[in-house]
Amino acid sequence: MNPLSRKEQQQRKIRTQTGFFAALDQSGGSTPKALLAYGIPESAWSGEEQMFTLVHQMRARLITTPSFNGDRILGAILFAGTMDRDIEGQATADHLWDRKRVVPFLKVDQGLADERDGVHLMKSMPNLPALLAKASLKGIFGTKMRSVINQANTTGVQAVVHQQFEVAAQILAAGLVPIIEPEVDIHASNKAGAEALLKAALEEYLDALPANQWVMLKLTLPEQDDFYAEFTNHPKVLKVVALSGGYSRAEANERLSRNHGVIASFSRALVEGLSVRQTDAEFDAELDSTIQGIYEASIT
After folding, report:
1. Which are the catalytic amino acids?
2. pTM exceeds 0.70
């Protein structure tokens, strides 16, 4: 029997193993806030390059911590700058898979456009083909891209989903698996109504996907428990993951545990409580406790 390729091993892990995703993809706009929460004020750097060096050191510390491994973590979503850097002398994506057995993903969107029809579409991505080509060479398995829905506006929600699947087609053609993330803002007016519109639009586009193509969905934890249950069993959906979306980790875990078959893909909630001032032992103990809590909420 031929051994499975790296990509086949990764796909099997995501499809069959229990666990959750670590979202380590803060970009330029959200990095200062992430560093401040970690205990590094803006006065600690001058210029974007120093800022990204500091956040990479934070991410590398997290990834190399003993508790961060593929036993409970299925995948990690990276910022492009993280993909381009090394951890312990090895390219980040290779380090994640070879040493940690964590599947590497890449955030590919370039941020949000101004609000229109109650939503934020993604900004244009003219460099996407080059980025996808680089990601493939660097051993990235899949991608993530985020839009935001602020209102239950049919025109806006349809535009978000159309754009997401339009870009997903390019990603699939490049041999990568897209994570489609149409985030419903937790403070959205008529959040439940927006979720109903989103669900209907997603169903339409998922059913139209060609054979032998799979996507993943990253969704806001819904107002109605198990609202996205159909997607967890959909033949075109490899996995449904949930963002924490501004909820505290405790509330995000509690909501997640009521949505069976959905797993976490937390960013801020994952690093909540971690500090640059902690000793390595304190840091690992805090992270281990966090990972276990998110893992338990993800396996309901």
Report:
1. 181, 218
2. yes
Write out the two tokens for 207.
């059913």
Question: How many angstroms separate the CA atoms of 122 and 135, rounded?
Answer: 20
> Could you tell me which of 122, 104, 72 has the C-alpha nearest to residue 289?
72
Spans of the chain below 50 pLDDT: none
In the chain, the amino acid numbered 169 is A
Helix (H, G, I), strand (E, B) or coil at 88: coil
CA angle at residue 74 from 52 to 209, to 5 degrees? 100
Torsion angle, CA of 128/97/238/231, rounded to 10 degrees? -90
What pLDDT was estimated at residue 27?
Answer: 72
Q: Which CATH architecture has domain 21-298?
A: Alpha-Beta Barrel (3.20)
CA separation for the pair 143, 145 (Å, rounded): 7
Q: Where are the domains of the chain?
A: 21-298
State both tokens at 271.
């690093």
| 3-state DSSP assignment of residue 233 | coil
The residue assigned the tokens 């690992």 is 284
Three-state SS letters, the chain: CCCCCHHHHHHHHHHHCCCEEEEECCCCCCHHHHHHHHCCCHHHCCCHHHHHHHHHHHHHHHHHCCCCCCCCEEEEEECHHHHCCEECCEEHHHHHHHHHCCEEEEECCCCECCCECCEECECCCCCHHHHHHHHHHCCCCEEEEEEEEEECCHHHHHHHHHHHHHHHHHHHHCCCEEEEEEEEEEEEECHHHHHHHHHHHHHHHHHCCCCCCCEEEEEECCCCCCCCHHHHCCCCEEEEEEECCCCCHHHHHHHHHCCCCCEEEECHHHHCCCCCCCCHHHHHHHHHHHHHHHHHHHCC
pLDDT per residue over 208-251, tens digit each? 999 889 999 999 999 999 999 999 999 999 999 999 999 999 99
